[in-house]
Amino acid sequence: MKVLLLAVGASCFIPAPVRPSLASARLLPVCPRAVVPRAQAGGVLDAQDSPPPAAPSLADKVDAVYRFSRPHTIRGTLLACFTGVGRALIETPQFIGMIPALLPKAMLGVLSLLLGNLFIVGINQIYDVEIDQINKPFLPIAAGRLSPRAAWALVLGSGVAGLTLVKAIFSPLIFYLYLFGTVVGGLYSVPPFQLKRFPLAAGLTIATCRGFLLNFGVYYATREALGLTFRWNPAVSFLARFMTVYACVIAVTKDLPDVEGDREGGIQTFALRFGAHKVAAGAALVLLLNYAGAVATALTAAAGTFRRPLMAGGHLLAAGWLWRSHRRLDASSPASIKEFYKQIWNLFYFEYLLYPFI
Q1: Domain extents for the chain?
Q2: pTM, 2 dp
Q3: How far are the Cα atoms of 173, 329, 343 from residue 324, in angstroms, in the given order?
Q4: CATH topology for 65-93+102-357?
């Protein structure tokens, strides 16, 4: 232990060419950045003239943890939670009066999903720190705002806490679904598996977690809390299918702005293999077909299964917005690529806003 502590302390003062690699640094606390002393008139450096770096404030620390949780994924998770619960209550309005009594359990369920989300996105940042320093230097670990030790504490704490909560308050079925999603989400980033290295496996991983498990699990956890038995629901089955395809597209398009870092990290993404223009066009085509399938489902389903005007009209509107976003894409511009990816996420959120009412 003493040797380890001496090595950690010494690494703070090792010149840059011989510092330990970032891969090794995942297991070590981040060293404070060295203060470069100011040159004096006679060429003598006086370190006392340089003020020491200010300690981060509480607000800075909270903001670093917030950024570490990847807020755009939190929004998707929260929308899935609230719309899944809303869908179950709309179908069984007689249970709406039970909301105050069930609210504590519901909030614990939401918390467990957010903890699972933090575990998955956090462990990805720990193992992708070198790539993030190129692609996303603003992320807390890559920017030096969050030490690897603190990141590991957040990741392991959230993983254990989430599993404990779900085990305590839900049935074995929901617990095993949650456990499966957590494990698969971790294998996406953790070596030697690192499913993200394989485009097809990466897409299936994200589609399984964010497409099927999240939507299916939230709805049936709500029914379980209401004391209702399991049954297949056409709207839930549609959303799980639709979002599985959508999550596959997100898994592919998220790599569009990250080509340089993925090349350096040896991650063979579709964007790296085929180029941003072809991948964006393919993603737009798949999503347009997904929207066409949604409209066809609305028009061909048995009467009363869906609210046809809303379901068909809403998906046609979303398809038009997607087409407009793709027409505006300039695949040679990083800013344009990021804007296109942002619109894909906005349409992802829109689907959840539509879901309770179809």
Answers
A1: 65-93+102-357
A2: 0.70
A3: 42, 9, 10
A4: Farnesyl Diphosphate Synthase (1.10.600)
Quickly count helices (H) and strands (E) in the chain: 16, 2
Q: Which residues of the chain have pLDDT under 70?
A: 1-54, 261-262, 265-266, 268
Element (H, E) at 39: strand 38-39
C-alpha distances (whole Å) from 347 to each of 250, 321, 325, 344 are 11, 8, 11, 5
Place of tokens 């450096």: 45
Q: pLDDT (tens digit, 9 = 90+) per residue, 240-275?
A: 889 889 988 988 888 787 777 667 766 767 777 888
Quickly count: other Cβ atoms within 10 Å of residue 241's Cβ.
17
- d(CA 25, CA 17) in angstroms, rounded, equals 15
Euclidean distance between CA atoms 124 and 140, whole angstroms = 12
Find residue 38's DSSP bridge partners. Answer: 46
pLDDT score recorded for residue 56: 76
Distance CA 3, CA 324 (A): 60
Of 153, 161, 158, 132, nearest in space to 144 by CA:
132
